[in-house]
Amino acid sequence: MNRDLRIGELIDSRYRVDKLLGSGAAGTVYLAFDTQLGRQVAIKLLNLDLSEGSDAFKRFSREARTLSRLLHTNIIRVYRFALLPEKTPYLVMEYAKGISLR
After folding, report:
1. Which of 43, 47, 53, 75 shows the smallest number of beta carbons within 10 Å?
2. Per-residue pLDDT at 73
């Protein structure tokens, strides 16, 4: 089960949640606005069962660190990997407007 973000909620005193983009097995993705840098971003909120210290969380953390180092036009940039106050992991990523992959 995911912790839902509210439209208008401010994450990390910086990212304003603007819209739900979609959800799936791993989590939920929101369109947000970075109020410090003035740009749209995507926030992926991971499922609560990927708790800190679990193998899934460790894998995801490694993946986030690796992706944050890659620079390529075909790879979405990862800007931040952190935990909400209740320990729900989330990613802040580059927002790429486009069509659904469905």
Report:
1. 53
2. 87
